[in-house]
Design goal:
Length: 160
């Protein structure tokens, strides 16, 4: 499986409170969560994101609370994958559980810039910055995680 999109870039320690502010946690509606995704760190994110776009960040992406609302908001906004130098462990697991592809690759996270066009091959772990002509190698997903993502999340994959 491959995805290709334009990059939205963020720094280190992006916590779940800025991914989806607590004032919006009174809803489970994915479209409503997406409408407020990243607004406390990037007010124009929802205006600029397109389906298939890619998010990059530095160290410790998704730190903070264990709310599943954060990866849900990102996925529902149209982001096809998040690449970061490192992820907070609970965010990592929540993202996989809801079917949001995420990849740890410090080199890609550092080199890729906002607005770059990037392609990701989940089968090989190769991340290609089309804009710069650079490639990076992340750990590809094991088959069971590819299945969870392909099914749209853990609960959907268990229904088979």
């Amino acid at each position: 499986m491959k995805v290709k999109g334009t990059v939205h870039k963020y720094g280190d320690n992006v916590d779940t409170d800025v991914i989806i502010p607590a004032r919006y946690l009174n809803t489970a509606d994915h479209k409503e969560l997406a409408a407020h995704c990243m607004e406390d760190i990037d007010i124009d994110f929802v205006k600029n994101v397109s389906s298939g776009d890619i998010m990059t960040a530095g160290q410790n992406f998704g730190c903070g609370s264990s709310r599943e609302h954060a990866p849900i908001a990102i996925k529902a906004s149209g982001i096809s994958c998040v690449i970061a130098a490192t992820f907070a462990r609970i965010f990592y697991r929540n993202a996989i559980n809801i079917g949001l592809p995420i990849m740890e690759c410090p080199e890609a996270a550092a080199d890729i810039e906002k607005g770059n066009e990037v392609e990701i091959d989940f089968d090989t772990g190769v991340i290609t910055n089309i804009t710069k002509g650079h490639s990076y190698k992340a750990q590809p997903f094991p088959d069971f995680i590819k299945e969870i993502i392909a099914e749209g999340g853990l609960l959907n994959s268990l229904k088979k």
